[in-house]
Amino acid sequence: MSQENETLKETGAESYSASNIQVLEGLEAVRKRPAMYIGDIGERGLHHLVYEVVDNSIDEALAGYCNDIYVTINEDNSITVRDNGRGIPVDMHEKEGKSALEVVLTVLHAGGKFDKGSYKVSGGLHGVGVSCVNALSTSLTAEIHRDGKIYKQNYSKGVPLTSVEVVGQCDDRGTIITFKPDNSIFTHTTEYSYSILASRLRELAFLNKGISLTITDLREKDENGEAKQERFFSEEGLKEFVEYLDENRGVPIIDSIIYLDAEKNGVPVEVAMQYNNSFSENVHSYVNNINTIEGGTHLMGFRRALTRTLKKYADESGMLQKLKFDINGDDFREGLTAVISVKVQEPQFEGQTKTKLGNDEVAGAVDSAMSEALTNYLEENPKNAKAIVDKVILAATARHEARKAREAVQRKSPLSGAGLPGKLADCSSKDRSIAEIFFVEGDSAGGTAKQGRDRHFQAIMPLRGKILNVEKALEHKMWDNEEIKNMFIALGVSIGTAEDSKALNLEKLRYDKIIIMTDADVDGAHIATLMLTFFFRKMKELIENGHVYIATPPLYLLKKGNNERYCWTDAERDMISQEMGKGTHIQRYKGLGEMSEKQLWETTMNPQTRILRQVTIENAAEADRIFSMLMGDDVEPRREFIEQNAHYANIDA
Question: Catalytic residue at 523?
Answer without folding.
Answer: yes
